[in-house]
Amino acid sequence: MTPQELLAHGDSGRLWPEFGGRDAFTDVPPAYRAALDVRALRIARGEIPRGFKVGFTNRNIWPLYNVFAPIWGSVWDTTLAFDAGDNLTSLAGLCQPRIEPEAVFGVKATPCADASLEDLFEALAWVAPGFEIVQSHLPAWKFTAPQTVADGGLHARLLVGRKVPISELARDARQLHEVLAGARLRLLRNGTLVEEGVGAYVLDSPLIALLHFLTELRECPGAPDLVPGDVVTTGTWTDAWPVHPGETWGASFDAALPSLDLTFR
User: Fold this and answer.
1) Is residue 138's pLDDT more than 80?
2) Residues 6+ apart with CB under 8 A from 264
3) Which of 44, 127, 182, 253 has the greatest number of CB atoms lying within 10 Å of its CB?
């Protein structure tokens, strides 16, 4: 599939074609090249990159999807919201959407080269609860890792909840790692518990996941760097759950992060 075809399917909400879709992208590097070409097409038509999503950081779900390493994709002004606005509550145009509760970071400075965990800590402004709405353009969520990369990292929407300044949670990187690793979550659908998670599921903590992503981003030819104002969502603390109009979903974190609710229509 060409970048133009990938973009068209992303816009339409249709599954990839059986031929040229399911058999496309058998290796990760070409898939990232295709994803970056799609990124360029989106910028050319007026969309503004607002950061990144990191996926498959939760090792518990790797066997469920046959993907055994993290991947990443772009977040856009057209896919990002900081409250439950209409652009996020509607599922129109999405392909097999699912919901993921995550921790989202706000970047205040580009981390230095070869950044340590402490360097990364100093580059962060805030952390917040988030719901990423993910989608797959392959039937029944059956795919390979390269296909998820070419499919925009499976990103569809990102809702960011109340921002918590990093300084309110931790004095240094080690403390932030420990606070987020130990944080617990209850995911609810229409008030009923669906699944529980913990921050340590995400590559041992969302902060560790963010550092892993930064390294991978900088090793990817042609990829942009983190810049001030970027948001990065660091991966789901539970499985990705199918969503439907009329449902209300809640992420009830413990004291580390505020709770977050979202109703679909």
Assistant:
1) yes
2) 89, 90, 91, 243, 244, 245, 246, 247, 248, 249
3) 127
Residue 192, classed as helix, strand or coil, is: strand
The tally of domains found in the chain comes to: 1
Given a contact cutoff of 8 angstroms between Cβ atoms, the answer to whether 134 and 155 are in contact is: yes
Phi/psi for 217 (5° steps) reads: -60, -45
Token duo for residue 155: 């990103």
The secondary structure of 125-138 as a DSSP string is EEEEEEEEEE--SS
Q: What average pLDDT does this structure show over 192-214?
A: 98
Give 62's pLDDT tier (boundaries 50, 70, 90): very high
247: domain range? Answer: 3-263
Close Cβ partners of 31 (under 8 Å, ≥ 6 residues apart): 25, 146, 147, 149, 150
pLDDT of 226: 98
CA distance 3 to 230: 24
